[in-house]
Design a protein that fits this description.
The protein is an alpha+beta fold. The chain is built from two helices and four strands.
């Protein structure tokens, strides 16, 4: 998979410098996740279906529910 260019940051990111959360990028087949504090660092790539299942499993956990807003 090529390096994504359409990163989106969580709306829960710190208002001061905006670097306290995660960013994701989607393609039809995959979702890529990275740490917004270290964007040049590693990423996690999940098949689209696995990411959807991941979101469903995390619902109700306040530190990660914003992931659902990224689905596109």
């Amino acid at each position: 998979m090529a390096t994504p260019v359409n990163w989106r940051k969580s709306s829960y990111s710190d208002g001061g410098n905006g670097n306290n959360c995660v960013e994701i990028a989607n393609s039809p087949a995959h979702t890529v996740i990275r740490d917004s504090k270290a964007p040049a660092g590693g990423t996690v790539t999940l098949p689209a279906e696995a990411f959807t299942n991941f979101l469903e499993a995390l619902k109700g956990h306040s530190t990660v529910t914003d992931f659902a807003r990224f689905r596109g």
